[in-house]
Amino acid sequence: MPLVFFTSADVFMNSKPYVVNGAGLGLRRSFLSEVVETPPAVDFYEVAPENWITIGGKYGKQFRAMTERFDFVCHGLSLSLGSTDPLDEDFVLAVKQFMREHQIKFYSEHLSYCSKDGHLYDLMPIPFTAEAVTHVASRIKRVQDILEQRIAIENVSYYAAPGQEMAEADFFNAVVAEADCDVLLDLNNIYVNSINHGYDAEAFLRAIPASRISYAHIAGHYVEAEDFLVDTHGADIIDPVWKLLAKAYELYGVFPTLLERDFNIPAIAGLQQEVDTIKLIQAAWQQQHAQQSA
Q: What is the pTM of this model?
Protein backbone atom coordinates (compact mmCIF):
# COMPACT_ATOMS: atom_id res chain seq x y z
CA MET A 1 0.00 0.00 0.00
CA PRO A 2 1.46 3.40 -0.94
CA LEU A 3 2.31 6.04 1.60
CA VAL A 4 0.15 9.10 1.02
CA PHE A 5 0.95 12.60 2.20
CA PHE A 6 -1.14 15.72 1.55
CA THR A 7 1.02 18.76 2.14
CA SER A 8 -0.73 21.58 0.29
CA ALA A 9 -1.61 24.44 2.62
CA ASP A 10 -4.33 25.69 0.27
CA VAL A 11 -6.34 22.63 -0.69
CA PHE A 12 -9.02 23.30 -3.28
CA MET A 13 -12.37 21.59 -2.79
CA ASN A 14 -13.99 21.04 -6.18
CA SER A 15 -17.66 21.81 -5.56
CA LYS A 16 -18.82 20.37 -8.88
CA PRO A 17 -21.59 17.78 -8.39
CA TYR A 18 -20.53 14.37 -9.66
CA VAL A 19 -22.88 11.88 -11.31
CA VAL A 20 -21.20 9.08 -9.31
CA ASN A 21 -19.07 9.11 -6.18
CA GLY A 22 -16.36 7.12 -4.44
CA ALA A 23 -14.32 4.25 -5.88
CA GLY A 24 -15.44 2.28 -8.92
CA LEU A 25 -14.58 -0.83 -10.91
CA GLY A 26 -14.72 -1.67 -14.59
CA LEU A 27 -17.23 -4.52 -14.95
CA ARG A 28 -16.04 -7.49 -17.03
CA ARG A 29 -18.04 -10.54 -18.12
CA SER A 30 -15.41 -12.85 -16.66
CA PHE A 31 -16.51 -11.95 -13.11
CA LEU A 32 -20.10 -10.81 -13.72
CA SER A 33 -21.69 -13.89 -12.16
CA GLU A 34 -19.54 -13.58 -9.06
CA VAL A 35 -20.32 -9.92 -8.39
CA VAL A 36 -24.04 -10.49 -8.96
CA GLU A 37 -24.04 -13.17 -6.26
CA THR A 38 -21.63 -11.45 -3.88
CA PRO A 39 -21.23 -7.75 -4.69
CA PRO A 40 -17.87 -6.31 -3.64
CA ALA A 41 -17.52 -3.02 -1.80
CA VAL A 42 -17.63 -0.87 -4.95
CA ASP A 43 -19.41 2.47 -5.27
CA PHE A 44 -20.02 2.43 -9.03
CA TYR A 45 -19.26 0.41 -12.16
CA GLU A 46 -18.18 1.25 -15.69
CA VAL A 47 -18.89 -0.68 -18.90
CA ALA A 48 -17.91 -0.33 -22.55
CA PRO A 49 -21.33 -0.10 -24.24
CA GLU A 50 -20.05 -1.93 -27.33
CA ASN A 51 -19.61 -5.04 -25.19
CA TRP A 52 -23.04 -4.91 -23.54
CA ILE A 53 -25.64 -3.30 -25.82
CA THR A 54 -26.58 -6.55 -27.57
CA ILE A 55 -26.08 -8.86 -24.61
CA GLY A 56 -28.97 -11.20 -23.81
CA GLY A 57 -29.74 -14.49 -22.10
CA LYS A 58 -28.13 -15.22 -18.74
CA TYR A 59 -25.58 -12.41 -19.03
CA GLY A 60 -28.31 -9.96 -20.00
CA LYS A 61 -30.37 -10.83 -16.92
CA GLN A 62 -27.33 -10.58 -14.68
CA PHE A 63 -26.37 -7.22 -16.14
CA ARG A 64 -29.91 -5.91 -15.59
CA ALA A 65 -29.69 -7.10 -11.98
CA MET A 66 -26.52 -5.05 -11.55
CA THR A 67 -27.80 -1.86 -13.19
CA GLU A 68 -30.94 -1.99 -11.06
CA ARG A 69 -28.84 -2.00 -7.88
CA PHE A 70 -25.75 0.09 -8.61
CA ASP A 71 -24.64 3.30 -10.31
CA PHE A 72 -23.13 2.82 -13.77
CA VAL A 73 -21.24 4.92 -16.31
CA CYS A 74 -20.31 4.10 -19.92
CA HIS A 75 -16.82 4.32 -21.41
CA GLY A 76 -16.79 3.98 -25.18
CA LEU A 77 -14.16 2.19 -27.24
CA SER A 78 -15.17 2.66 -30.88
CA LEU A 79 -16.68 6.10 -31.46
CA SER A 80 -13.43 7.13 -33.18
CA LEU A 81 -13.73 10.82 -32.44
CA GLY A 82 -10.54 11.71 -34.31
CA SER A 83 -11.34 9.83 -37.50
CA THR A 84 -12.15 11.43 -40.86
CA ASP A 85 -14.79 8.74 -41.40
CA PRO A 86 -18.36 9.96 -40.89
CA LEU A 87 -19.44 9.93 -37.25
CA ASP A 88 -21.40 6.76 -36.50
CA GLU A 89 -24.59 8.46 -35.34
CA ASP A 90 -26.52 5.19 -35.36
CA PHE A 91 -24.12 3.89 -32.73
CA VAL A 92 -24.53 7.07 -30.66
CA LEU A 93 -28.31 6.62 -30.79
CA ALA A 94 -27.91 2.99 -29.69
CA VAL A 95 -25.76 4.16 -26.75
CA LYS A 96 -28.43 6.71 -25.85
CA GLN A 97 -31.11 4.01 -25.78
CA PHE A 98 -28.84 1.66 -23.80
CA MET A 99 -28.18 4.34 -21.21
CA ARG A 100 -31.87 5.13 -20.83
CA GLU A 101 -32.80 1.47 -20.54
CA HIS A 102 -30.32 0.86 -17.72
CA GLN A 103 -30.39 4.32 -16.11
CA ILE A 104 -26.69 4.73 -16.86
CA LYS A 105 -25.62 8.16 -15.76
CA PHE A 106 -22.75 9.27 -17.99
CA TYR A 107 -20.73 8.57 -21.15
CA SER A 108 -17.03 9.05 -21.85
CA GLU A 109 -14.72 8.34 -24.78
CA HIS A 110 -11.05 8.40 -25.73
CA LEU A 111 -9.40 11.37 -27.42
CA SER A 112 -8.22 9.15 -30.27
CA TYR A 113 -9.43 7.38 -33.39
CA CYS A 114 -9.84 3.72 -34.26
CA SER A 115 -11.23 3.69 -37.79
CA LYS A 116 -10.27 4.57 -41.35
CA ASP A 117 -12.61 3.00 -43.92
CA GLY A 118 -13.24 0.33 -41.29
CA HIS A 119 -12.19 -0.37 -37.73
CA LEU A 120 -8.48 -0.55 -36.89
CA TYR A 121 -9.02 -2.33 -33.54
CA ASP A 122 -6.59 -0.04 -31.76
CA LEU A 123 -6.66 3.46 -30.33
CA MET A 124 -4.53 5.65 -32.59
CA PRO A 125 -3.13 9.09 -31.67
CA ILE A 126 -4.71 12.21 -33.15
CA PRO A 127 -2.18 14.73 -34.53
CA PHE A 128 -1.67 17.55 -32.06
CA THR A 129 -2.69 20.32 -34.48
CA ALA A 130 -5.10 23.25 -34.53
CA GLU A 131 -6.96 21.67 -37.46
CA ALA A 132 -7.46 18.48 -35.45
CA VAL A 133 -8.76 20.48 -32.47
CA THR A 134 -11.54 21.96 -34.62
CA HIS A 135 -12.33 18.61 -36.27
CA VAL A 136 -12.54 16.61 -33.05
CA ALA A 137 -14.38 19.30 -31.08
CA SER A 138 -17.11 19.50 -33.71
CA ARG A 139 -17.64 15.74 -33.50
CA ILE A 140 -17.79 15.83 -29.70
CA LYS A 141 -20.39 18.59 -29.90
CA ARG A 142 -22.47 16.48 -32.25
CA VAL A 143 -22.31 13.50 -29.88
CA GLN A 144 -23.40 15.71 -26.99
CA ASP A 145 -26.29 17.05 -29.06
CA ILE A 146 -27.51 13.53 -29.85
CA LEU A 147 -27.10 12.24 -26.29
CA GLU A 148 -28.56 15.46 -24.89
CA GLN A 149 -25.86 15.59 -22.24
CA ARG A 150 -22.20 16.47 -21.83
CA ILE A 151 -19.66 13.71 -22.26
CA ALA A 152 -16.13 13.33 -20.92
CA ILE A 153 -12.98 12.89 -22.99
CA GLU A 154 -10.07 10.81 -21.73
CA ASN A 155 -6.43 11.79 -22.05
CA VAL A 156 -4.95 8.75 -23.80
CA SER A 157 -1.61 6.96 -23.88
CA TYR A 158 0.25 7.27 -27.18
CA TYR A 159 3.56 6.02 -28.55
CA ALA A 160 4.14 8.42 -31.44
CA ALA A 161 3.05 11.99 -32.19
CA PRO A 162 2.86 12.40 -35.99
CA GLY A 163 2.50 15.95 -37.26
CA GLN A 164 2.79 17.45 -33.78
CA GLU A 165 2.35 21.23 -33.69
CA MET A 166 1.56 21.69 -29.99
CA ALA A 167 2.18 19.99 -26.66
CA GLU A 168 -0.13 17.16 -25.60
CA ALA A 169 -1.57 19.15 -22.69
CA ASP A 170 -2.26 22.18 -24.90
CA PHE A 171 -3.98 20.00 -27.50
CA PHE A 172 -6.09 18.20 -24.92
CA ASN A 173 -7.17 21.40 -23.22
CA ALA A 174 -7.95 23.10 -26.53
CA VAL A 175 -10.27 20.25 -27.56
CA VAL A 176 -12.03 20.24 -24.19
CA ALA A 177 -12.51 24.02 -24.25
CA GLU A 178 -13.78 24.21 -27.85
CA ALA A 179 -16.10 21.21 -27.44
CA ASP A 180 -17.26 22.41 -24.02
CA CYS A 181 -17.07 18.86 -22.69
CA ASP A 182 -15.87 17.24 -19.47
CA VAL A 183 -12.65 15.38 -18.66
CA LEU A 184 -12.08 11.74 -17.81
CA LEU A 185 -8.68 11.95 -16.13
CA ASP A 186 -6.52 8.86 -16.61
CA LEU A 187 -3.66 8.89 -14.07
CA ASN A 188 -1.85 5.89 -15.53
CA ASN A 189 -1.87 7.42 -19.02
CA ILE A 190 -0.27 10.57 -17.65
CA TYR A 191 2.45 8.51 -16.00
CA VAL A 192 3.04 6.27 -19.04
CA ASN A 193 3.28 9.25 -21.39
CA SER A 194 5.57 11.12 -19.01
CA ILE A 195 8.07 8.26 -19.13
CA ASN A 196 7.74 7.53 -22.84
CA HIS A 197 7.88 11.17 -23.95
CA GLY A 198 10.04 12.66 -21.22
CA TYR A 199 7.76 15.22 -19.62
CA ASP A 200 6.83 16.02 -16.03
CA ALA A 201 3.69 14.15 -14.96
CA GLU A 202 2.79 16.61 -12.24
CA ALA A 203 3.10 19.55 -14.63
CA PHE A 204 0.62 17.84 -16.98
CA LEU A 205 -1.69 17.17 -14.06
CA ARG A 206 -1.59 20.83 -13.03
CA ALA A 207 -2.56 21.87 -16.56
CA ILE A 208 -5.85 19.93 -16.47
CA PRO A 209 -8.98 22.13 -16.15
CA ALA A 210 -10.07 20.97 -12.70
CA SER A 211 -13.66 22.18 -12.96
CA ARG A 212 -14.23 19.82 -15.89
CA ILE A 213 -13.05 16.58 -14.22
CA SER A 214 -15.99 14.16 -14.12
CA TYR A 215 -14.17 11.09 -12.82
CA ALA A 216 -10.83 9.34 -13.15
CA HIS A 217 -9.25 6.07 -14.23
CA ILE A 218 -6.33 4.35 -12.59
CA ALA A 219 -4.67 1.19 -13.90
CA GLY A 220 -1.47 -0.80 -14.28
CA HIS A 221 0.92 -1.03 -17.23
CA TYR A 222 3.68 -3.20 -18.71
CA VAL A 223 7.34 -2.21 -18.46
CA GLU A 224 8.92 -2.95 -21.85
CA ALA A 225 12.08 -1.00 -20.96
CA GLU A 226 13.17 1.60 -18.43
CA ASP A 227 12.06 4.36 -20.80
CA PHE A 228 9.19 2.55 -22.54
CA LEU A 229 5.93 1.64 -20.83
CA VAL A 230 2.85 0.07 -22.43
CA ASP A 231 -0.64 0.89 -21.16
CA THR A 232 -2.10 -2.62 -20.82
CA HIS A 233 -4.46 -2.48 -17.83
CA GLY A 234 -3.01 -5.90 -17.13
CA ALA A 235 -0.91 -5.44 -14.00
CA ASP A 236 -1.11 -4.10 -10.47
CA ILE A 237 -0.91 -0.33 -10.06
CA ILE A 238 2.58 0.82 -9.11
CA ASP A 239 3.46 3.27 -6.36
CA PRO A 240 4.28 6.30 -8.59
CA VAL A 241 0.80 6.09 -10.14
CA TRP A 242 -0.83 5.88 -6.72
CA LYS A 243 1.16 8.93 -5.67
CA LEU A 244 0.02 10.78 -8.79
CA LEU A 245 -3.58 10.07 -7.78
CA ALA A 246 -2.87 11.44 -4.31
CA LYS A 247 -1.34 14.55 -5.90
CA ALA A 248 -4.46 15.00 -8.05
CA TYR A 249 -6.63 14.94 -4.92
CA GLU A 250 -4.28 17.38 -3.23
CA LEU A 251 -4.64 19.78 -6.14
CA TYR A 252 -8.32 19.40 -6.93
CA GLY A 253 -10.09 17.61 -4.10
CA VAL A 254 -11.48 14.07 -4.23
CA PHE A 255 -13.28 13.02 -7.40
CA PRO A 256 -14.76 9.62 -8.33
CA THR A 257 -12.00 7.21 -9.35
CA LEU A 258 -12.32 3.86 -11.10
CA LEU A 259 -10.01 0.84 -11.30
CA GLU A 260 -9.49 -0.52 -14.82
CA ARG A 261 -8.30 -4.10 -15.26
CA ASP A 262 -8.63 -5.78 -18.68
CA PHE A 263 -6.02 -8.57 -18.74
CA ASN A 264 -4.51 -10.95 -16.21
CA ILE A 265 -7.58 -10.25 -14.11
CA PRO A 266 -7.06 -11.46 -10.54
CA ALA A 267 -9.67 -12.86 -8.20
CA ILE A 268 -12.28 -10.41 -6.93
CA ALA A 269 -10.34 -10.14 -3.67
CA GLY A 270 -7.37 -8.77 -5.61
CA LEU A 271 -9.51 -6.22 -7.42
CA GLN A 272 -11.14 -5.28 -4.13
CA GLN A 273 -7.73 -4.59 -2.62
CA GLU A 274 -6.93 -1.97 -5.26
CA VAL A 275 -10.42 -0.43 -5.02
CA ASP A 276 -9.84 -0.24 -1.27
CA THR A 277 -6.56 1.57 -1.88
CA ILE A 278 -8.45 4.20 -3.88
CA LYS A 279 -10.81 4.56 -0.92
CA LEU A 280 -7.91 4.88 1.53
CA ILE A 281 -6.33 7.67 -0.51
CA GLN A 282 -9.68 9.42 -0.75
CA ALA A 283 -10.22 9.04 2.99
CA ALA A 284 -6.72 10.38 3.72
CA TRP A 285 -7.51 13.52 1.74
CA GLN A 286 -10.90 13.91 3.42
CA GLN A 287 -9.32 13.58 6.85
CA GLN A 288 -6.59 16.13 6.15
CA HIS A 289 -9.06 18.53 4.57
CA ALA A 290 -11.28 18.28 7.63
CA GLN A 291 -8.30 19.03 9.90
CA GLN A 292 -7.31 22.04 7.80
CA SER A 293 -10.89 23.34 7.86
CA ALA A 294 -11.27 22.91 11.65
A: 0.92
